[in-house]
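Researcher: Structure for this, please.
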Amino acid sequence: MSAEFPASDSLPVAGTAYGLGIGPGEPDLITLKAYNILQKADVIAYPALEDGVSLARQIVDRHIPEGRIEIAIRIEMGKPADPIYDAAAIEIGKHLADGKTVAVLCEGDPFFYGSFMYLFGRLAEAGHPVKTVPGVSSMMACAAQLGAPLAAKNDVLQVIPGPLDADRLREQLAKTDAAAIIKLGRHFAKVRGVINELGLTDRARYIERATLETQKMVPLGDLPTDAKAPYFSMILIHRRGDAWR
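Model: Predicted structure, token format:
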């Protein structure tokens, strides 16, 4: 006897916006639900840099059917983002009011530091139906690529943003069993210094651009002292070295 599964809700509903988690970079790391909605959506929106480059758009390029309306939400680095999201929500809202379905692409997972949450709030407050499709987050992808389980048993796992000041970083790292330090970029040297101070370097793994062709991963201590880190990089730390120990 074959198993019975509930009916799929992967077909988009007219006038609804969908925040699609499309994974950390590898095109195949998209859920079937997100893929199915992407195939049927009338409008596809995504964040893009000022020069038009969109990592989110690049990730799912081969999955996007021809003839779709596209909205590039251009983020101007160093400038307030609120007016940009305000304008994007108004533009998307017009399509929703016309009965179109809109798929908003979000790298990783929409609600794990994802840009989609800012559109979600604006669209929902305006009365538009909005649904979120979870995706493979960068943290999960980094752990898988490194072969480093994040936590086990009764471990406390912390997600720590690199932009925190050194004192706050030190405080958080000093009391946790396991940590994922994100948003490294120009904060890498500071973060690395705190890890060294706490004697955790030999328990720290570094990875950048997880699942992409340009992926790089190495024990943190093996990096040159003057090494730089891109924004899309992460350090995973576990006090036991390996979570299963």
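Researcher: Any notable elements?
Model: The chain has two domains: 17-136, 139-238. The domain at 17-136 is CATH 3.40.1010.10 (Cobalt-precorrin-4 Transmethylase; domain 1).
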